[in-house]
């Protein structure tokens, strides 16, 4: 190790960044430009060099940079000197450059004012800032995520309404001199085209309307809410022909692609933060001690909670270090014991999941068989009507019970698996995500097994069970509608009949058991899984119920205020909160998993299951996807050959290879960037331990 003499150590420059090649290049460009005013104004000290660097570098073409002084990382005194020098430099540039600089400043000012005005129009801006100030950025990230889902569902609703619902309504009522065309199904058995919706006729009780509103049957079944309403094949707007089946399918692909791109766009920033924040234990400790405080907190109770949160995180780090040492010191006998115990617990988890899935399957089969029997019968008594409504809601009830009971069992079993605290949370959350989203898949599988079951030749001629499901797409849409409504009812009932009574008991009752239970915590992860479950239902159900995104928008709009009231008045923040930087990325990853799982049932419904021959825009096609090749057949011959070439293996294989090469390139680029980050961290560590690390070598 080489030590510099004291006189050379004192003569070392204060700012070692001035020795970088980029800084020297900037000095050479500034010298070549002949900026006499800058040479005269800038002092030779460290502050003067930084101000000259901010003022002096010229853009390509000899044009001076027009950035305002407030955008530079300088002190107030340096910014004032920089502003004076910039104003003095104006007299040395041409009139065209002066006008261009003035126009650029005016345009930036206008854009900033417009951006500031639009920020005031942002949904729930004040409410979210208030929540952030009282409870920190972790809980604020949940409400921001909820706002994102409201906007996403609203845009999906606008998309489906504009391209599917509105043309159907306009053509059916002859608005704007429009008309519609219905093409009778060809080469299809007559019994397959019979569809008699269970619309209410004659005198109807008020209870029947309420039952229809909750179950999606009756008068709602024949409205534009469900798939069966869209039975036209083409809409004529003056002389323009609008292909509704193709528009229906393309709108479905469009809202799925829009959701995918928007989620990826929002998750990129969180992924970058997680990549950069992949820190060692010492850096994690320093960040918690010196940069762990949330300066948005203004509420004393929230500040005390943040103190406990930091203390918990430090204890967790120490516990993880203790577990790492314990794992390193394990004998072979202890390893066999813990691995055997984990295998046994995972067998129990699989058994719990199997029980949930089987219960949902049996409840769905029972509900479909018995509710279809009662359709069309006149309901005269409230007891029979209530029993019928209960049968229709049986799958939703069983799914809700499974979503409540299974996570409690997982949280209990994870304690015996001897994982680290952080891994315990992640594993439990992933199990809860799986059980919630898989329950929807089991429900759809149960429905499809009933829809595809054919025991007679007449049924096989249709391709699906036409007796029980003459319009099976509307039946699936009704199930998704009931899941959406029941999920909202459960959230509202939990706040009104659980949280508020518990708050009153804790406030006014001094009994030790009541005070020991205390207020229920506002678990961010549980609430996020709750709304992601509802969003997955919306993605799947929009194809079968085009106006379901409007219901989801209204639902999440009310959930925002329900959760806000619950957080402020009836619950307390969780003692183990998660950071906003990691929580936002986790929310979007789970949401992306829900979207990817939604692709599977939609793809099967569109490409595999025969479409209903008695209703819907695809009744003249074997499957919904068949409208695409049928439309291509109407194109010119040259365009058909191009499209068939794109869909052939001769194009697909090279395209796949090019995509793989591009993907490997970006993976290698990401690895190189990660290595650069690691090298910079090592250099920072060297700077911390050796103050002479970055001094010039003499």
UniProtKB/TrEMBL annotation:
It is found in: Membrane. It is a multi-pass membrane protein. One of its GO terms (cellular component) is plasma membrane. Residues 471-581 form the TMC domain. Keywords: Membrane, Transmembrane, Transmembrane helix. InterPro entries: TMC, TMC_dom. GO terms for molecular function: mechanosensitive monoatomic ion channel activity. The chain crosses the membrane at residues 148-170, 246-264, 339-361, 393-416, 428-448, 585-609, 651-672. It comes from the Eukaryota. Its main location: membrane. Residues 28-65 are annotated as: Disordered. Belongs to the TMC family. This is Transmembrane channel-like protein. The gene is Tmc7.
């Amino acid at each position: 190790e080489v030590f510099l003499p004291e006189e050379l150590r004192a003569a070392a420059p204060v700012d070692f960044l001035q020795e970088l090649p980029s800084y020297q290049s900037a000095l050479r460009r500034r010298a070549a430009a002949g900026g006499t005013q800058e040479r005269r104004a800038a002092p030779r000290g460290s502050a003067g060099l930084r101000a000259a660097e901010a003022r002096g570098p010229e853009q390509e073409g000899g044009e001076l940079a027009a950035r305002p002084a407030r955008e530079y990382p300088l002190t107030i005194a340096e910014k004032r000197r920089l502003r004076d020098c910039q104003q003095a430099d104006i007299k040395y540039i041409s009139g065209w450059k002066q006008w261009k600089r003035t126009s650029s400043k005016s345009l930036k000012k206008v854009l900033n004012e417009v951006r500031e005005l639009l920020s005031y129009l942002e949904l729930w801006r004040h409410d979210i800032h208030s929540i952030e100030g009282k409870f920190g950025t972790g809980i604020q990230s949940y409400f921001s995520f909820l706002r994102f889902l409201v906007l996403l569902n609203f845009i999906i609703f606008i998309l489906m309404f504009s391209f599917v619902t509105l043309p159907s309504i306009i053509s059916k009522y002859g608005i704007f001199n429009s008309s519609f065309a219905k093409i009778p199904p060809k080469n299809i058995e007559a019994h397959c085209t019979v569809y008699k919706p269970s619309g209410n006729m004659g005198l109807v009780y008020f209870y029947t309307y309420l039952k229809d509103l909750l179950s999606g049957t009756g008068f709602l079944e024949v409205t534009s809410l469900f798939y069966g309403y869209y039975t036209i094949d083409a809409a004529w707007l003056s002389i323009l022909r609008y292909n509704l089946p193709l528009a229906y399918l393309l709108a479905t692909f469009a809202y799925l692609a829009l959701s995918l791109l928007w989620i990826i766009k929002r998750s990129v920033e969180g992924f970058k933060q997680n990549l950069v924040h992949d820190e060692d234990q010492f850096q994690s400790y320093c960040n918690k001690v010196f940069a762990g405080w949330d300066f948005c907190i203004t509420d004393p109770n929230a500040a005390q909670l943040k103190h406990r949160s930091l203390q918990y995180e430090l204890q967790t780090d120490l516990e993880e270090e203790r577990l790492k040492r314990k794992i390193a010191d394990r004998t072979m006998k202890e390893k066999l014991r813990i691995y055997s115990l984990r295998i046994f617990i995972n067998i129990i988890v699989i058994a719990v999941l199997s029980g949930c899935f089987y219960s949902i399957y049996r409840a769905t089969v029972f509900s479909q068989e018995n509710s279809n029997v009662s359709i069309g019968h006149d309901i005269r008594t409230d007891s029979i009507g209530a029993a019928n409504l209960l049968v229709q809601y049986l799958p939703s009830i069983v799914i809700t019970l499974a979503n409540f009971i299974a996570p409690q069992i997982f949280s209990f079993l994870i304690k015996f698996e001897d994982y680290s605290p952080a891994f315990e949370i992640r594993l439990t959350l992933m199990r809860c995500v799986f059980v919630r989203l898989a329950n929807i898949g089991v429900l759809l599988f149960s429905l499809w097994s009933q829809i595809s079951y054919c025991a007679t030749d007449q049924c096989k001629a249709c391709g699906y069970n036409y007796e029980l499901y003459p319009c099976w797409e509307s039946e699936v849409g009704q199930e998704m509608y009931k899941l959406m409504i029941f999920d909202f009812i459960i959230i509202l009932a939990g706040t009104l009949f659980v949280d508020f009574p518990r708050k009153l008991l804790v406030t006014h009752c001094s009994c030790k058991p009541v005070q020991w239970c205390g207020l229920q915590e506002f678990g961010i992860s549980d609430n996020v899984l709750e709304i992601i479950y509802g969003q997955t239902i919306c993605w799947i159900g929009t194809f079968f119920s085009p106006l379901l995104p409007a219901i989801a928008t209204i639902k999440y709009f009310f959930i925002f205020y329900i959760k806000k009231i619950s957080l402020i008045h009836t619950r307390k923040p969780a003692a183990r909160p998660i950071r906003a930087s990691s929580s936002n990325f986790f929310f979007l990853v789970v949401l992306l998993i829900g979207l990817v799982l939604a692709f599977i049932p939609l793809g099967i419904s569109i490409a595999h299951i025969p479409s209903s021959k008695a209703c819907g825009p695809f009744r003249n096609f074997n499957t919904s996807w068949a409208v695409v090749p049928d439309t291509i057949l109407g194109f010119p011959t040259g365009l058909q050959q191009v499209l068939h070439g794109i869909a052939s293996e001769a194009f697909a294989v090279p395209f796949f290879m090019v995509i793989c090469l591009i993907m490997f390139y970006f993976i290698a680029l990401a690895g190189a960037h990660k290595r650069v980050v690691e090298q910079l961290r090592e250099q920072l560590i060297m700077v911390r331990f050796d103050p002479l690390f970055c001094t010039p070598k003499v």
